[in-house]
């Protein structure tokens, strides 16, 4: 609902709750995108190094296509949340939750030594985004603990 509608019917508080929830979900979606990109990069390097022959390359290419879809799905989730946040009052030029384009779904491979010209090529903005804004010190600590637990549980998955 628009801001005047929420104010007219006394829904401002609910709008703020929805904003906070969607902001968290937007950050979760960005984390999903970052993870999908890392997984894609790792598997692409594996393919280049260890996969030889037409049959294995075809199967690997099919698998890489699913990983590309994971990146796109995460980006679509983020865009959905950002669109809702814009309707709830997020400024279009917000410095943290920016517009995410398909041509930004990449990262430099940190597992390899830097190559000539890499320092001039800057990673997309979402690699430098941290926790949601407006958190109290207690909420920041809780967020950091929860993020650490989430990262550990993801690394324990087979």
Automatic annotation (TrEMBL):
Region (Disordered): 108-158
Superkingdom of origin: Eukaryota
Compositionally biased residues, Basic and acidic residues: 109-125, 136-158
Protein name (record): Uncharacterized protein
